[in-house]
Each structure stands twice: as structure tokens, then as C-alpha cells.
Amino acid sequence: MVTKLLCKNCGSNNIVLNGKRSNGRQKYHCKNCRCYRTFGPEYYYSTERKEEILRTYKERASLRGVRRIFGVSITTVLTWLKKKSQA
Ligand SMILES: [Zn+2]
Hints:
Elements: E1 15-20, E2 26-30, E3 36-39, H1 47-60, H2 63-70, H3 74-86
Antiparallel strand pairs: 1-2, 2-3
Helix pairs in contact: 1-2
The chain binds zinc ion.
């Protein structure tokens, strides 16, 4: 599920995943620039995966169903939908 993870600060992939925050965001430590940061939801899913999830959501019209199938949070799906409708 995780595609390529790059440091948001310096763009290096020399990072160590470091547990999760209470809000579900992935924490990481970058060995290159030595920063501690978190990834937003957009870092967990590739574009294809995102499309698949949104398609499933439209077919079933159920956020809970999507959450059950993909383990994606409802907030994340709503954010994608919002972005999509703005585009
Ligand atoms: Zn870095």
C-alpha cells in the first residue's frame, strides 16, 4: 500500500518510520536532514489506489464500507472528494 516515501523536508528517501500519531498520521525520522515529521494521508495511497477507493465509494455510496474494505479513514476520503470537486 505504501508507495515511495520521501522526506518532506529534504526529499531524501533515507527515512525511518517512527510509529503513528493518534490522528493516524505516520511519523518518520529522516536520517538525511535529521528531522522528525509526519506524512499526510496523501503519502499512503498511490493515485491508482485513490481512484479505486473513490470508485468503490461511488458504487456503494458508503463511507463506512470503504473504510472497512480499505482501512482508509472517512476524513481522508472526504478530503479527496473535496479536492476532486474543486478540480
Ligand atoms: Zn530529510
